[in-house]
């Protein structure tokens, strides 16, 4: 069984972050080990989000723990603190692992005030440049490429080229449910070719966790030695089902569900 390390935030509501990763990797029969960099909580009255960064000593101890484990891949999600970020970069330089996927979680479906001390130039230079694959949504891709917004496949292509130039080997940009054409488009760019993956947008408000699930599923396929293109294709189908099976959590949100079945929806 392959072992994969997730580094990112713990979502107390259970939909995104490390919790989505664990559920997804289990579906692919892969063993997920974790290093939690931050914890996200929600106000029960209005769902306002708070984020608590892990003290550096604890984050570092988690990463050290994983040095004893042969890792087929590492998935990096939400990173909130510059000191933890630097510890992560040092760790990536010493650890032995297969693929590195970076999901640059900056613009999520929840409004999270991120620690602005990680500037994007540093983020690109130190982290993205090491990634085999990076999976921003269109909002994150716009932030990374310093454009106002991305509203079409041709604008996704422009952004993918720029992100590739940061040293990333493969770029996947996701439009999710944001484009008016009714299509959920994912664009893959490997430095030579563009490939477009599309399906219809499921009309639902419940897709929290879709991004984490999608990127975990891509990595889950990659460590099974599938091509990047086949990995993205399969992950898209997996995530589509997870969105189709989403559950309402409370009056504020609904979360994707990676399991085979769910027996009740409220
Ligand atoms: N309503 C939806 N219908 C179909 N696919 C969706 C829907 N919402 C998200 N997806 C898919 O889930 C994956 C994650 O996309 P997205 O939700 O944009 O990520 P993020 O959580 O990073 O914003 C993509 O493959 C996207 O096409
Ligand atoms: C810790 C953490 N990581 C990642 C995400 C991203 O979630 P999504 O997959 O909906 O983009 C969230 C969303 O709340 C989160 O709390």
TrEMBL record:
UniProt GO MF annotations: kinase activity
Keyword Transferase among UniProt keywords: yes
Gene3D superfamilies per UniProt: 3.40.1190.20
SUPFAM superfamilies noted in UniProt: Ribokinase-like
Record key words, sorted: ATP-binding, Kinase, Magnesium, Metal-binding, Nucleotide-binding, Transferase
A Pfam family per the record: Phos_pyr_kin
Reaction(s) this enzyme catalyzes, per UniProt: pyridoxal + ATP = pyridoxal 5'-phosphate + ADP + H(+)
Every Pyridoxamine kinase/Phosphomethylpyrimidine kinase domain range: 11-256
EC number of this enzyme: 2.7.1.35
This protein's record includes keyword Membrane: no
Family designation: Belongs to the ThiD family.
Matching PANTHER family: PHOSPHOMETHYLPYRIMIDINE KINASE, PYRIDOXINE KINASE
Record's protein name: pyridoxal kinase
Species assigned in the record: Leuconostoc pseudomesenteroides
